[in-house]
Amino acid sequence: MAKLTLTVTNFIFKLISTMLVLWVAHVVNRVWFFGGWGYFSTALIIAIVGLIVDMTVLPFLGNSRTLAVDFVVNTLLIWFVPVLWNGPRISFLPTLICSAVITVLEAGIHRFINRTNRLVDQAEER
């Protein structure tokens, strides 16, 4: 049950933080997204893919390598997802900046996940 709660917390954090970063990027550069659906759909796809990466890659590669994978995946998704709903093509430099900010935020959640996983494993051993 604790692992499920941790997974849901991870997903919610990813979704909210990604939406906030994309919203700030939109405020700075008004041509990125068309209304709330653009933010939500892009953030939802990034959160789902990020959660899958965290569940599959994080236990094996550790925090640093997983953050590198997250950065690449986030960059590609931020750049490509708006095309799926006929949004404007986002230039690559702002995409890299957004991805870097999201990756820094994810570093915090990765530390939380690793620490909590260790505590849950220790509690289950007892």
Automatic annotation (TrEMBL):
Where does the chain cross the membrane?
Answer: 12-33, 39-60, 67-85, 91-109
Q: Which domain of life is it from?
A: Bacteria
The protein's UniProt keywords, in alphabetical order, are: Membrane, Transmembrane, Transmembrane helix
InterPro entries for this protein: DUF2512
Protein name per its UniProtKB record: YndM family protein
Specify the species: Alicyclobacillus dauci
